[in-house]
């Protein structure tokens, strides 16, 4: 019923005149949760964080618009764009046909015109249909035009493994996109990350690949008043030290940050103090923070959910070898997904993605406190 | 060896006539629906929908544009043969398609080219030396697309049709469509070839343009060849008929007839500016030269094909018309020939003077601002270069 009413009033129409007075368009709260304005630290779901970031940036800059499948009438395949069609109308929230290559290229054309598109891929697996436009049209335009054609576009959507979605819907593209000069690649973990990084991405003049995670959308995190402010932004290229430690550095991004923090908790009970770095930015990579940490702890475990070969951890390891080799007291440990297409069977899928125990074991190996590996369970 | 150009036809059946049969597999005359205002012999013919009057000034202008464009093309081809350019994509034979459509553009319209639209570049006021800089590989920057309303050359086949459609949707949302103000209403034209029409990108652009009623003209120069692939390899049906399937009008125009190309493109652009959405214009022409200077078309096509099309030359037919109607009594053609010679000289001299880019510029413009990581790499490289004996500071 309420949904029906919304449809009538919204969609960018002129507000109705009733009794000589303009009827205020009822704009229901765009967030899933009601907002409490108390002084205590508030909790916010990642989904709401992304939604509020989009809303605020669209409100602040009329050039920003959203485009993708299901983003409008359906309120977003994962409800990230809930309420936005109604608030901003169909000219700024475009439901597209099933044409990833199409709307990625269209987005670049719109950016050439001076607009700021936010292009949503239902998952980044489908970005492979559009990858020519992400890389050849978006990433390289500024370079190939001597800085005359900038493409302030954001490509965003869920990346990596979800739960039981099979091989073609579970791949992590962090390494793929971070490989490309001209792109910026971000991956939030918490709601603070989601808000701050998405706002920074939308404001950035360069093309940004924004890798979210479906399983994080429903997770809640405490957010401060500063985070809730509409001007809040997180700098691109700076990692965040989520937990300080002195014995081993653990790098991670997206969902794995949560796993790394859990691992750190377990390790602390065994007398190992782990420093957990939330990368936030895959390209540019915050080599300074990573290396400073390794110079402090002398040990490194890189964690990612994607395939191991040519992954993010490989680059981090090389960076540390290049800049902090003498500081390493142990070989760098790499935790990644299994080197197989994601299995569909739930028991096999669990084996194919890193678990907290894997991170704990790796940290112990780095500290020469490892236990013999039992058969994986 | 010439490849077979026959197509297998399905017999007429419960699904109706075989459309390829209706329009014929070989359409060297362009088929029954070809829009033409000037025959290959230079005779003026009428057309019920697209006819218009042309002033002597307009026609002389077209002639001059085509002659100078051809000169740019032949001069650049020669420069490539002399090692002054890395490569050149020749437009020989397609001058009318490009000048006719290019001159129909208003200043506020925007053109998205492929890599062969040197005639359209000419119409948009681009100095041809800018094109040479690109093909010589010394100019990372091409030209300022916004200044000339002419996009950068795109070699990813068909990609520009999506860029054009996205740009057109931006024009729409800026309210520059259907206002009735001739200085404000704008259209976008997307150039592409017969080969590109097979690409997914191009078809998705059609879908989007139709769905969103975007103010874009899809201008296909069907020059019969995609490198060595003849048109029959790309399509079973005349290309302009595809538009119907996507839900917007398509028209085939004689791409060697500058008058018809101008009239049809003007009408299509006006449709877009008014808010009536996309149009597909197929300019039926022939690639008289090679795909690029690295191609050798004698390997895959017979010279009598080319000879046939020489009889349909775009410049010759206009010149015949102009002479027959006394429009060039004043030595105009000699004047244009002299201008072409001068242009050729300027291009030759200018090309050789184009300087190689500075080594450190390789790090420029990867991002809007130089990131610290890249600055470090650049500084490191600069130090490396400076470490050579006799290196300049």
TrEMBL record, chain A:
<feature type="domain" description="Transketolase-like pyrimidine-binding">
    <location>
        <begin position="44"/>
        <end position="219"/>
    </location>
</feature>
<dbReference type="InterPro" id="IPR033248">
    <property type="entry name" value="Transketolase_C"/>
</dbReference>
<comment type="function">
    <text>The pyruvate dehydrogenase complex catalyzes the overall conversion of pyruvate to acetyl-CoA and CO(2). It contains multiple copies of three enzymatic components: pyruvate dehydrogenase (E1), dihydrolipoamide acetyltransferase (E2) and lipoamide dehydrogenase (E3).</text>
</comment>
<comment type="subunit">
    <text>Tetramer of 2 alpha and 2 beta subunits.</text>
</comment>
<keyword id="KW-0670">Pyruvate</keyword>
<dbReference type="GO" id="GO:0005759">
    <property type="term" value="C:mitochondrial matrix"/>
</dbReference>
<keyword id="KW-0630">Potassium</keyword>
<keyword id="KW-0479">Metal-binding</keyword>
<keyword id="KW-0496">Mitochondrion</keyword>
<comment type="function">
    <text>The pyruvate dehydrogenase complex catalyzes the overall conversion of pyruvate to acetyl-CoA and CO2.</text>
</comment>
<dbReference type="InterPro" id="IPR029061">
    <property type="entry name" value="THDP-binding"/>
</dbReference>
<dbReference type="Pfam" id="PF02779">
    <property type="entry name" value="Transket_pyr"/>
</dbReference>
<dbReference type="GO" id="GO:0004739">
    <property type="term" value="F:pyruvate dehydrogenase (acetyl-transferring) activity"/>
</dbReference>
<dbReference type="GO" id="GO:0006086">
    <property type="term" value="P:pyruvate decarboxylation to acetyl-CoA"/>
</dbReference>
<protein>
    <recommendedName>
        <fullName>Pyruvate dehydrogenase E1 component subunit beta</fullName>
        <ecNumber>1.2.4.1</ecNumber>
    </recommendedName>
</protein>
<dbReference type="InterPro" id="IPR005475">
    <property type="entry name" value="Transketolase-like_Pyr-bd"/>
</dbReference>
<dbReference type="Pfam" id="PF02780">
    <property type="entry name" value="Transketolase_C"/>
</dbReference>
<dbReference type="InterPro" id="IPR027110">
    <property type="entry name" value="PDHB_mito-type"/>
</dbReference>
<dbReference type="GO" id="GO:0046872">
    <property type="term" value="F:metal ion binding"/>
</dbReference>
<dbReference type="InterPro" id="IPR009014">
    <property type="entry name" value="Transketo_C/PFOR_II"/>
</dbReference>
<keyword id="KW-0560">Oxidoreductase</keyword>
<keyword id="KW-0809">Transit peptide</keyword>
Automatic annotation (TrEMBL), chain B:
<protein>
    <recommendedName>
        <fullName>Dehydrogenase E1 component domain-containing protein</fullName>
    </recommendedName>
</protein>
<keyword id="KW-0560">Oxidoreductase</keyword>
<dbReference type="Pfam" id="PF00676">
    <property type="entry name" value="E1_dh"/>
</dbReference>
<dbReference type="GO" id="GO:0009083">
    <property type="term" value="P:branched-chain amino acid catabolic process"/>
</dbReference>
<dbReference type="GO" id="GO:0016624">
    <property type="term" value="F:oxidoreductase activity, acting on the aldehyde or oxo group of donors, disulfide as acceptor"/>
</dbReference>
<feature type="domain" description="Dehydrogenase E1 component">
    <location>
        <begin position="64"/>
        <end position="340"/>
    </location>
</feature>
<dbReference type="InterPro" id="IPR050771">
    <property type="entry name" value="Alpha-ketoacid_DH_E1_comp"/>
</dbReference>
<dbReference type="InterPro" id="IPR029061">
    <property type="entry name" value="THDP-binding"/>
</dbReference>
<feature type="region of interest" description="Disordered">
    <location>
        <begin position="1"/>
        <end position="31"/>
    </location>
</feature>
<dbReference type="InterPro" id="IPR001017">
    <property type="entry name" value="DH_E1"/>
</dbReference>
<dbReference type="InterPro" id="IPR017596">
    <property type="entry name" value="PdhA/BkdA"/>
</dbReference>
């Amino acid at each position: 019923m309420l949904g029906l009413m919304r449809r009538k009033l919204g969609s960018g129409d002129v507000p109705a005149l009733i009794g000589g007075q303009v009827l205020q368009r009822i704009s229901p709260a765009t967030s899933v949760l009601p907002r409490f304005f108390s002084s205590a630290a508030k909790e916010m779901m990642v989904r709401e964080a992304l939604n509020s970031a989009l809303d605020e940036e669209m409100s602040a800059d009329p050039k920003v618009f959203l485009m993708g499948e299901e983003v409008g009438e359906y309120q977003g395949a994962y409800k990230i764009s809930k309420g936005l069609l109604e608030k901003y109308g169909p000219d700024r929230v475009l439901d597209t046909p099933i044409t990833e290559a199409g709307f990625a290229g269209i987005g670049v054309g719109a950016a050439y015109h001076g607009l700021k598109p936010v292009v949503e891929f239902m998952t980044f697996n489908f970005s492979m249909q559009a990858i020519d436009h992400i890389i050849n049209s978006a990433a390289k335009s500024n370079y190939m035009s001597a800085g005359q054609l900038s493409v302030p576009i954001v490509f965003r959507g869920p990346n990596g493994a979800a739960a039981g979605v099979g091989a073609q819907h579970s791949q992590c593209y962090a390494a793929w996109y971070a490989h490309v000069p001209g792109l910026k690649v971000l991956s939030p973990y918490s709601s603070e990350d989601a808000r701050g990084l998405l706002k920074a991405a939308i404001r950035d003049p360069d093309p940004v690949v924004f890798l979210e995670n479906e399983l994080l959308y429903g997770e809640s995190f405490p957010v401060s008043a500063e985070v809730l402010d509409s001007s809040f932004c997180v700098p691109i290229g700076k990692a965040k030290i989520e937990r300080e430690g002195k014995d081993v550095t653990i790098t991670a991004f997206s969902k794995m940050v949560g796993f790394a923090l859990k691992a750190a908790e377990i390790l602390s009970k065994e007398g190992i103090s782990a420093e957990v770095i939330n990368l936030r930015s895959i390209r540019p990579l915050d080599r300074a923070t990573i290396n400073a940490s390794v110079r402090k702890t002398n040990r490194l475990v890189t964690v990612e959910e994607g395939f191991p070969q040519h992954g993010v951890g490989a680059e981090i390891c090389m960076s540390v070898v290049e800049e902090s080799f003498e500081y390493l007291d142990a070989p760098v440990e790499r935790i990644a997904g299994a080197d197989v297409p994601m299995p569909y069977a739930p028991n096999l899928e669990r084996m194919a993605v890193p678990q907290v125990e894997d991170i704990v074991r790796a940290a112990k190996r780095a500290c020469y406190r490892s236990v013999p590996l039992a058969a994986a369970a | 060896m010439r490849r077979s150009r026959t197509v297998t036809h399905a017999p007429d059946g419960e699904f109706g006539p075989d459309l390829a049969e209706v329009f014929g597999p070989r359409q060297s005359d362009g088929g029954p629906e070809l829009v033409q205002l000037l025959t290959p012999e230079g005779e003026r013919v009428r057309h019920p929908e697209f006819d218009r009057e042309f002033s002597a000034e307009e026609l002389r202008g077209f002639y001059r544009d085509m002659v100078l464009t051809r000169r740019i093309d032949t001069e650049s081809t020669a420069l490539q043969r002399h090692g002054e350019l890395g490569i050149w994509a020749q437009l020989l034979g397609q001058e009318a398609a490009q000048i006719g459509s290019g001159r129909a553009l208003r200043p506020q319209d925007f053109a998205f080219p492929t890599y062969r639209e040197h005639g359209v570049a000419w119409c948009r006021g681009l100095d041809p030396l800018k094109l040479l800089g690109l093909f010589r590989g010394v100019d990372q920057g091409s030209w300022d697309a916004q200044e000339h309303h002419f996009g950068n050359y795109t070699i990813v086949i068909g990609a520009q049709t999506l860029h054009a459609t996205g740009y057109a949707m931006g024009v729409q949302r800026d309210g520059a469509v259907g206002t009735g103000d001739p200085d404000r209403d704008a259209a976008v034209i997307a150039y592409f070839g017969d080969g590109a029409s097979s690409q997914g990108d191009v078809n998705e652009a059609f879908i989007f343009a139709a769905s969103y009623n975007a103010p874009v003209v899809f201008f296909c120069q069907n020059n019969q060849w995609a490198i060595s692939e003849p048109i029959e390899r790309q399509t079973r049906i005349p290309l302009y008929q595809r538009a119907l399937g996507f839900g917007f009008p398509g028209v085939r125009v004689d791409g060697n007839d500058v008058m018809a190309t101008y009239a049809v493109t003007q009408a299509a652009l006006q449709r877009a500016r008014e808010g009536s959405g996309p149009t597909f214009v197929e300019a039926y022409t022939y690639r008289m030269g090679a795909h690029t200077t690295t191609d050798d078309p004698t390997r895959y096509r017979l010279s009598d094909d080319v000879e046939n099309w020489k009889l349909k030359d775009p410049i010759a037919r206009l010149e015949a018309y102009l002479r027959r109607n006394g429009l060039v009594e004043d030595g105009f053609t000699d004047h244009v020939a002299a201008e072409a010679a001068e242009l050729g000289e300027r291009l030759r001299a200018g090309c050789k003077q184009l300087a190689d880019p500075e080594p450190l510029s390789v790090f420029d413009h990867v991002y809007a601002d130089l990131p610290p990581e890249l600055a470090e790499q650049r500084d490191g490289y600069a130090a490396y270069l400076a470490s050579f004996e006799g290196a300049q500071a």
